[in-house]
Amino acid sequence: MILEVAVLDIGKGTCEDFEAAFGKASLIIVSMPGYISHELRRCLEKTNRYILLVKWQTLESHTVGFRQSAEYQQWRALLHHFYDPFPVVEHYDLPLVAHGM
Predict the structure, then answer these.
(1) Which end of the chain is more exposed for a tag (fewer CB within 10 A), N or C?
(2) Where are the beta strands (DSSP E) in 10-83?
(3) Cα 25 to Cα 86, 94, 96, distances in angstroms
(4) What is the separation, in whole angstroms, between the first and last Cα of the chain?
């Protein structure tokens, strides 16, 4: 399992629209092969910033299976115009240390 991490800065005054569009986009990502789970969280200090955490079975599930799919084009059309600037997306391995939640 890998963890995709994206910090999403959203244009001023568009957070409500972004959240509504993300609700629609979520239906796309959950249908993708290799998808495990995701969560979107809003920053408390910078209210136009979000963090997106997506768990995938493999790196290729995200970079090839999702990013090279027709469904990704729908995701892109729903969300990419909100980003200011375009986010950096990184992938992380299994936890080295984990404690109870």
Answers:
(1) C
(2) 35-42, 49-56
(3) 17, 26, 31
(4) 18
How far apart are alpha carbons 100 and 59 in whole angstroms?
25
Pairing of strands 89-92, 2-9: antiparallel
Are residues 6 and 51 in contact, defined by beta-carbon separation less than 8 angstroms?
A: yes
Pairing of strands 49-56, 35-42: antiparallel
pLDDT band of 64, cuts 50, 70, 90: very high
Tokens of 24: 């629609």
Structure tokens at 71: 């469904």
What is the arithmetic mean of pLDDT over 41-67?
Answer: 97
Measured from the Cβ of residue 56, the count of other Cβ atoms closer than 10 Å reads: 24
pLDDT over threshold 70, residue 10: yes
What's the Rg (C-alpha) of the chain?
A: 14
Instruction: Give rounded-to-5 percent helix, strand, coil for the chain.
Output: 35, 30, 35
